[in-house]
Structures are given as structure tokens and as C-alpha cells.
Amino acid sequence: MRKYDWLQVFGKNFYEIYTNFFLHHKEYCSRFSLYLVIVVWGPVMWRFSWCLRIICICGVIRLSIKVELITKKKKKKFPTTFPITMSSLNAQYLAYLIKYPLLTKSITSGVFSGLNETVASVLTNEFQETKIAGIKIKHVFTQKLLTMIIYGSCIATPISHYMYFIINNKIFKGPLTKSGKILQILTSLSTVTPTLAACFVSWIALINNYKLPKGSINPIAELNKIVAIVRAGLKKGYFGVLKSSLVTSSVALVIAQKFVPPELWVVFFNVVYFFLGTYQNTKLKRLQKQQRLAK
Fold first, then answer.
1. Are 113 and 152 within 8 A, CB to CB?
2. Looking at the structure, do residues 201 and 248 belong to the same domain, yes or no?
């Protein structure tokens, strides 16, 4: 595989999901594209050059136009009165989960992680101010929001996806006995939970305390700074996060074993960890806010 082949595959898969879904629900094409431009690319590109903003916005608009042109061609096949129900959306989601398991889980986790950071920022009163037409508007669209989306989609999800795949398909196969289910829970609690807790605390510590220096960068000095921030974050917050994660994961694993198919475990835990992660993120933000005020 060439250096950037993975990026091409990711883009192709995302484009197929986007087009296929909105061919069924074409009345949402324009609104979704507008949302994508304003809510996602606007905040992400806020501090970058105008050139990058224009390129991103034009790319999304071009994609929207292409989808709507395809929709018109498929008008007979997909009528405009296609009913949108929870069951149809759920069936569509499950179809994508089967066809693109990691990509679908990554997008789901990215959305939940973005909501996690948004809710935590609101609860800790960490707002940004932007002037629009001379009016100050408070919002939560920061680089931290983007980094949390990256964490959920590109770090936590691949780790949990492959670890649960190994546990559910390699170590514990087929119908499990009572002792087998207990061993499965203990294996997950001793591997997946500590790993994700360490990743979460380290990532939160970095996005709350690390900033790239202006001007020239000394890689060794910056690496030492990152290591020091991660160590301090793990020392102060790891065991508290691990404790709450173990309690929540134990209950969630028992429920998952009884009611949730193995292929849906990552999605199920995304929902569980959204609530747990929002609580933990809010707690860490308040602790770090107190530490900054004490200095």
C-alpha cells in the first residue's frame, strides 16, 4: 500500500456513505451540506488562511451539488415521499455498520466525542467569544472540539474495535458458558478499559495544557514537554477515571453479553462512554481550571 492509499480509501468510503444515504433522503442534502460547512469546517478553519476556508467550503458545496444531480437522475427509483422513520434509519445504519464497520463506528464515535466536549465546555462555562457584525457571540467551537472528534474517531474507536474483535472472535468464540462469560468480562476489564482510560486522560491533559510554540520548534524539547504533561495528567486523573470506567464497564459488559450482538459492542459502548466521558471530562476540566487559577 502506498503512503496515502488509506486516505483515498477513507474518502471513497465516506463519499459512498454520504451519497447512498442522501439518495434515500434527498430533502436533507442541502441542509446537511450547509450544516457540514457551518458547524464543522467553519470552526475548524477559523484560525487558518482564507484560502483553506474557501477550498474546504467549495469542496463541500461541489459534493452537495453532485449528490443532488445524482438524486434527480434517480428520481424514479427513489421517490421524494420516502418515509423517514427510526426503523428505516436504524436499518440503514446497521447496513453501513456491516459493510463499513470501522468507518461507521469511527464516525459515530467522532459525533459522540464532539458532543462530549461541547457539553463539558458548557457545564464548566468555557466559552469562546467571536465578534460578528460588531456583536459578541459566545460559542464552544474551539480547537479542543476538533481534537476530541479526532480522539473519538481516530484513536479510541480503532483501539476498541480491534481489541473487542480479538476478545470476541479470537479468544472467546461461539456460545459461552457462565464461566466463559465471566472470563470475557475480566479480560475486557483488564485490557480494554485500562487502555482507553489511559488514552482518554492523556488526550484530555494534552488538549487542555499543551500549545504549539510560535516560531521555531525544538522537537526534543516539545516531546519532553508532552511527556511531562501526560505524566502529570495520568498521575492526577488516571486512577479516578479508571475506577469509574471499571464500575461502568462491568455493568455495560453484563448488559452487552445478554442483549447486544458482538458486532454492535463498540457502538453500544460509544453511547455508554458518552455519558461517562462527559462526566469525566467535566470533572477533569474543573480540576484543571482550579489548578490554573491557583497558579
1. yes
2. yes
Alpha-carbon gap, residue 71 to 23, rounded angstroms = 6
Q: Let me know whether 216 and 266 are in one domain.
A: yes
Among 18, 53, 84, residue at a domain's last position? 84
DSSP 260: S
Please give the C-alpha separations between residue 175 and each of 33, 154, 252, 257, in angstroms, as whole numbers: 44, 31, 19, 11
pLDDT, tens digit (0-9, with 9 covering 90-100), for 88-105: 777 788 888 888 889 988
Distances (CA, A) of 47 to 38, 80, 252: 14, 40, 40
Tell me the three state secondary structure of residue 46: coil
Residue 151: name the closest of 274, 285, 279, 4 by CA.
274
**What letter would DSSP give residue 215?**
S
Task: Write down which residue in 58, 84, 110 finishes a domain.
Answer: 84
Q: What's the sign of the alpha-carbon dihedral 147, 152, 153, 154?
A: positive
280 or 114: which leads in pLDDT: 114
Alpha-carbon gap, residue 156 to 274, rounded angstroms: 12
pTM, full prediction: 0.59
User: Which structural domain, as residue segments, surrounds residue 199?
Assistant: 102-294
Q: Are 71 and 26 in contact (CB under 8 A)?
A: yes
- Same domain for 68 and 24, yes or no, is yes
Which amino acid, 277?
Answer: G
